[in-house]
Specification:
It is built from 1 helix and 5 strands. It has 81 residues and is α+β, with helices and mostly antiparallel strands. It has one domain (2-76). The protein has a 5-stranded antiparallel sheet with strand order 1-2-3-4-5, with helices on one face. The relative contact order is 0.21.
């Protein structure tokens, strides 16, 4: 997270054993669910003042996917597409 200058998220365990991270921004609510058993991260960014949602899935077992995840989260924090 430090490499992408991401704010510290609120982190919660989920009933199915995953971990959910959430960030609140002025125009966006961003969440990432990390499922270590499936080696996936599912990210959702919802714009609060418009009917817009962005979703991406990152297969964390593949090389470079953690960088793509961090880059996507950073772009959403800045409100970019």
């Amino acid at each position: 997270m430090n490499g992408f200058e991401l704010a510290t998220p609120h982190i919660y365990p989920t009933p199915d054993g995953s971990v959910r991270a959430e960030w609140s921004r002025p125009q966006w609510e961003i969440s990432a669910e990390l499922d270590w058993s499936r080696k996936l991260s599912e990210v959702r960014a919802v714009r609060l003042d418009a009917d817009e949602m962005r979703e991406r899935t990152f297969p964390l077992g593949e090389p470079g996917e953690e960088v793509r995840l961090g880059s996507f989260l950073a772009s959403q924090m800045r409100g970019e597409g």
